[in-house]
């Protein structure tokens, strides 16, 4: 399945467009995957980094109280950190496990996005080969230019939201580690 999805993304002249269409189709099915381990297995085994980005972007858009219309970028990933509420299908998991899963997917989105940008994966396969041969610099968007202050403020916002939820309980070590890794 993963290989077929990857091929489906690449056969079009616009991998970005085809990945959006495929992500729209498979997104409702991902919401119905009952176990975190199954969701992670599906996302971690995706051959197409671009499709993984689109699916994760949809998941986070779905989990934001106020979705944004920014294109996928580093600024949008920071927006997701600050504005995502817990993912809807996580009803039965403990609060810390739900936040942990959200951070796991946000990190996966960041890594996948980095691979998309560095590998010119939004370009058609024929154009991509030319870009790689020419050693072209990745195309960054305006929203990819973020500062350390932006990162710091969004992380602090996330931590304060999490502290409100946890109340007097201390932050679990796994959450601290994932926030540090993401930062």
UniProtKB/TrEMBL annotation:
Recorded GO MF terms: SUMO polymer binding
- Identify this protein by name: SIMC1 protein
Q: Which organism is it from?
A: Nothocercus nigrocapillus
Q: Which gene encodes it?
A: Simc1
